[in-house]
Specification:
CATH topology of the largest domain: Aminoglycoside 3'-phosphotransferase, Chain: A, domain 2
Number of helices: 11
Number of domains: 2
Oligomer: single chain
Radius of gyration: 20 Å
CATH class of the largest domain: Alpha Beta
CATH architecture of the largest domain: Alpha-Beta Complex
Helix content: 40-55%
Number of strands: 10
Order of helices and strands: HEEEHEEEHHHHHEEEEHHHH
Strand order of the largest sheet: 1-2-3-5-4
Distance between the termini: 51 Å
Strand content: 5-15%
């Protein structure tokens, strides 16, 4: 085990912590996760800037734990240099799109209500408090649009002529109108994907929300955009139970969803990740 291994770091910083087995997961783009005996989770940032996100989390999460009704990470294992963090494992099954399809309409409705409550609590959190913890503002819709317009050129080369026309039509229909910045910004999770929504298999209810490392101050619609991966009906149910008078929230969330799908298809090509391509390509399938 080399000098920089996550396990060695855990042992060096927490010598009294005993465990029998561990699982190292190359978790997403920005961190490596180590799970000890399915009881404790350690997150190790990878890449520049990620350590700053975790340090912001250290300030934000204790405050959110007092506000959020669902279980969320509560960092209890923090080394002196704060280079990584650990929390007690939140048991649950990720709400994958495959698992979601097997649920009854009533179960889906209950989950939508839970997520709506979670987002209402999160988005109403005082911004001044999280700014003091180091929370930053996310990029604007205009910046995101310019970024993904560059990526989409690579995507078009991979698509058939028919699929390319479908994607261009999607852009014309949903992404050409200027978005007014008259919405109220909020603290957002920003990565509310299937991996981060945990479900109790017995009760079929949400039992936890994890990974707040991408949390920033931004358009609340971004948190709803990930939910389109389930289906529009589910998005509607969450919105119906969400505390907001923002009439354009759904429209903006779908635009952000389009950008995310382009990003997924782009990374599917450039990183040769088939699952990323399939996740993004669903946008085209659903609009044929």
């Amino acid at each position: 085990m080399n000098e920089q291994s996550p396990i060695k770091k855990i042992k060096d910083n927490f010598p009294d912590l005993k465990f029998k087995k561990f699982n190292i997961v190359d978790f997403g783009w920005d961190k490596t996760v180590v799970i000890l005996d399915n009881k404790i989770v350690f997150a190790f940032p990878k890449g520049k800037g990620i350590d700053k996100k975790i340090k912001a989390e250290l300030g934000i999460l204790p405050k959110l734990n007092k506000k959020i009704s669902l279980p969320i990470p509560n960092y209890q294992y923090i080394p002196k240099d704060k280079s990584f963090v650990g929390y007690n494992f939140i048991s649950g099954t990720p709400l994958s799109t495959q698992y979601f399809k097997k649920l009854t309409p009533a179960q889906k409705t209950n989950i939508a209500k839970q997520i709506a409550v979670f987002l209402s609590e999160l988005h109403s959190f005082p911004l001044q408090a999280v700014k003091k913890c180091g929370a930053t503002e996310a990029w604007s819709e205009k910046d995101a649009r310019n970024y993904y317009l560059k990526q989409v050129e690579t995507v078009y080369k991979k698509l058939s002529t028919k699929d390319g026309e479908t994607l261009k039509n999607i852009f014309r229909k949903y992404c050409n109108a200027t978005i007014k910045d008259d919405f109220k910004k909020a603290l957002i999770h920003q990565d509310l994907t299937e991996e981060h929504i945990l479900i109790d298999k017995n009760t079929k209810k949400v039992c936890g929300i994890i990974d707040f490392s991408d949390s920033q101050i931004a358009d609340p619609a971004i948190d709803f955009s990930k939910l389109w991966e389930y289906d529009e009906n589910f998005v509607n149910k969450v919105l119906d139970n969400y505390h907001s008078k923002d009439k354009h929230l759904k429209t903006r969330s779908y635009r952000w969803y389009i950008y995310q799908c382009i990003g997924n298809m782009y990374f599917g090509i450039t990183l040769k990740k088939k699952n990323c391509w399939q996740k993004g390509y669903r946008l085209i399938k659903d609009n044929k």
